Amino acid sequence: MKPVVKVENVDKAFGSGDKKVEILNQINFSIEPYQLVALRGRSGSGKTTLLNMIGALDHPTAGEIYIEGTPISKYNEKQRSELRRTKMGFVFQSYGLVPLMTVEENIEFGLRIAGVPRGEWAAKIKESVDIVGLSKRSKHRPYELSGGEQQRVAVARAIASKPTLLLADEPTAELDSKMAFHIIQAFQELVKNRTTTIIMTTHDPNILEIIEHVYTLEDRKIDYRKKEIYV
Ligand SMILES: Nc1ncnc2c1ncn2[C@@H]1O[C@H](COP(=O)(O)OP(=O)(O)OP(=O)(O)O)[C@@H](O)[C@H]1O
After folding, report:
1. d(CA 128, CA 91)
2. 39, 47 Cβ separation under 8 angstroms
3. How far apart are CA 68 and CA 139, in angstroms?
4. InterPro entries given for it (predicted)?
5. Does the CB atom of residue 44 touch ligand 1 within 6 A?
6. Which of 44, 21, 20 shows the shortest CA–CA distance to 217?
7. Which long-range contacts (CB under 8 A, 24 or more apart) does 126-134 make?
8. How far is the CA of 195 from the centre of ligand 1 (A)?
């Protein structure tokens, strides 16, 4: 099976001339299908930058990123947006919920964009809302929810379409430890059922403890560690 993600000799710098800041230098790694991967590193180490490049939202300065074997650097904006829409789910720090839509409608909107057939929406909305424990809140609008609840809606929306690749930036940052574990368990189920490959960033040592594949960004380089997990 091809890796879902292959990052090859990737450099990333922002700015130019005197203001040039090199964030990532010669990054290489591959992620096999149905892995749950954690990306850790100090604030400013480039975790979000790397997720953005894997998610075709930003371009490497050098090197190549392959999604399911296809190099994406030559994709035009339309192809990149198609790739994101059909294969990827995103949980980013701003959540990106539509304020005037209820929880259900926000998830439905995500399903529509991902091209999921209409007949599957109701079941997928129910399933994803149940997974994040928000069944009782599904008719509420984002502004009626706490920060952690909004984050769970973003998770539900991202997993509802069962994307090939889920990219999640600090998806448990706003959650208490019980709910954070619950979300990670849901991620582990998606991986175990061979539904999705997940890359998430986290600072939380308790979560890093239970994730098998951990990548660390430090001094512009990446380091990989596979752990034995006993659960
Ligand atoms: N568009 C941009 N222009 C200039 N510099 C940027 C840009 N985006 C990110 N950076 C810089 O790149 C570095 C890495 O940022 P990034 O957001 O990837 O870090 P991070 O590891 O995700 O941090 P955190 O844990 O705080 O979210 C930071 O120093 C940041 O200021």
Report:
1. 14
2. yes
3. 37
4. AAA+_ATPase, ABC_transporter-like_ATP-bd, ABC_transporter-like_CS, ABC_transpr_LolD-like, MacB-like_ATP-bd, P-loop_NTPase
5. yes
6. 44
7. 127/160, 128/156, 128/157, 128/159, 128/160, 129/103, 129/104, 129/156, 131/156, 131/159, 131/186, 132/156, 132/182, 132/183, 132/186, 133/179, 133/182, 134/103
8. 30
At 123-149, the pLDDT tens digits run 999 999 999 999 999 999 999 999 999
Q: Which of 60, 87, 82 is nearest to 73 (CA)?
A: 60
Does 59 sit in the ligand 1 pocket, CB within 6 Å? Answer: no
Q: Which helix (H) or strand (E) holds 138?
A: none
- The model carries a pTM of 0.94
Does the structure's ipTM exceed the value 0.90? yes
Count CA atoms closer than 13 A to 29's CA, side-chain side: 20
Q: Is the CB of 43 under 6 A from ligand 1?
A: yes
Rounded to the nearest whole angstrom, what is the distance from the C-alpha of residue 47 to the centroid of ligand 1? 8
Quote the ligand 1 centre to 100 CA distance (angstroms): 30
Q: Are strands 213-218 and 221-226 parallel, antiparallel or unpaired?
A: antiparallel
Q: Give all strands of the β-sheet with 221-226 in edge-to-edge order.
A: 88-91, 165-169, 197-201, 36-41, 213-218, 221-226
Amino acid at 108: E
What is the CB neighbour count within 10 angstroms for residue 117?
8
